[in-house]
Specification:
Distance between the termini: 104 Å
GO molecular function, one term: RNA polymerase II cis-regulatory region sequence-specific DNA binding
Radius of gyration: 47 Å
Helix content: over 70%
Keywords: Coiled coil, Nucleus
Number of strands: 0
Largest sheet: none
Number of helices: 5
Shape: rod-shaped
Subcellular location: Nucleus
Order of helices and strands: HHHHH
Strand content: under 5%
Protein name: Myelin transcription factor 1 domain-containing protein
Structural class: mainly alpha
């Protein structure tokens, strides 16, 4: 108790005797119990600091993963935009070719069917060589070949 400011101050004034000093609330056993509590609290603080460090490291890792994913998403969006522009250009080109084909075939007597069915029929006729054996189909195919000869693809 020689280091305790209250004990020293009271002892100097002569208010407390040695027995009274021991009976104060600052007994040695209390100080030892407080010391154990302080050690336990320091241990808990160390564990919390370690846990916080681990959590901060995990957060940094997650943030870097999120940044990487955002960058990949941005690249994919840019690639998709380019693909959409290319698709639009191809669609316009296909539309132009369709119109050119329709104009080229304007003077040819076509069977009564919609345009898609007609294109499918023509495709089948070109791929199936047996269609050339039929004179009617042969004349139609030759007329179509001449009509579409000038279309640039």
């Amino acid at each position: 108790l020689s280091g305790c400011p209250r004990a020293t101050f009271a002892g100097k004034k002569g208010k407390l005797s040695g027995d009274e000093i021991l009976n104060t609330k600052f007994k040695t056993s209390d100080v030892l119990e407080n010391d154990e509590e302080i050690k336990q609290l320091n241990k808990e603080i160390s564990e919390l600091n370690e846990s916080n460090s681990e959590m901060e490291a995990a957060m940094v890792k997650l943030q870097s993963q999120i940044s990487s994913m955002e960058k990949n998403l941005k690249n994919i969006e840019e690639e998709n935009k380019i693909i959409e522009e290319q698709n639009e250009a191809l669609f316009l080109e296909l539309s132009g070719l369709s119109q050119a084909l329709i104009q080229s075939l304007a003077n040819i007597r076509l069977p009564h069917m919609n345009f898609d069915a007609y294109v499918n029929t023509l495709t089948d006729m070109y791929t199936n060589q047996e269609c050339y054996q039929n004179p009617e189909n042969k004349d139609l195919l030759e007329s179509i070949k001449q009509a579409v000869k000038g279309i640039q693809v």
